Amino acid sequence: MLTLKKKYSLTEYFEREILAETRNEYIDGEIVEMTGGTPTHNTLVVNLLSILHISLPDPYRVFVTDQRLWIPAQRIATYPDVMVIAEPFSYQEGRKDTLVNPVLIAEVLSPSTANYDRSGKFAAFRTIPSFQEYLLIAQDRIYVEHFYKEGDRWIFAAYERDETISLQSVDLAIATTAIYKRVNFELEASASEQ
Fold this sequence. Notes:
Elements: E1 3-4, H1 10-19, E2 24-27, E3 30-33, H2 39-55, E4 60-64, E5 68-71, E6 76-78, E7 82-86, E8 98-99, E9 102-108, H3 114-118, H4 120-125, E10 133-137, E11 144-150, E12 153-159, E13 164-167, E14 172-175, H5 176-179, H6 185-193
Parallel strand pairs: 5-8, 9-10
Antiparallel strand pairs: 1-3, 2-3, 2-6, 4-7, 5-6, 7-9, 10-11, 11-12, 13-14
């Protein structure tokens, strides 16, 4: 990720973001350019989006990579890969394009962001009162890290091939094979070697 060193106000960030050709995160005054995804990354996002969109009843809505999330306690504006929000939506004060009340967030891991997604970003997400569940989806193999809130504690589970993830916040079971449908690890590995 490329970090622009100047400190920006939130107003300046929103002004720049409206005109930007790329998506950028805002992290307490710094603007961080987000990298593009791979075909595998996009396939995993589409698969999870499709499953959630078809399966979740009202009042849940599913959002993907272009929907901005504001984390007020950390002063972070970010674009999760997949977010589930229960209606009614809550917006950042003064905005109609930035949500603040996700129930579930999923991120597809990439080598450049995996550590941040597991640590700093997850810590920031946990400051959101509505946030209950987090999925981290590997791109290089069938492996999903699942965190869910039980009372005041976060519980961890990991899932591999031919296992079923029981989402607690939205009462839904998802097979790992469905998340990884049409993902060809050999094809992706050979493309990255070229």
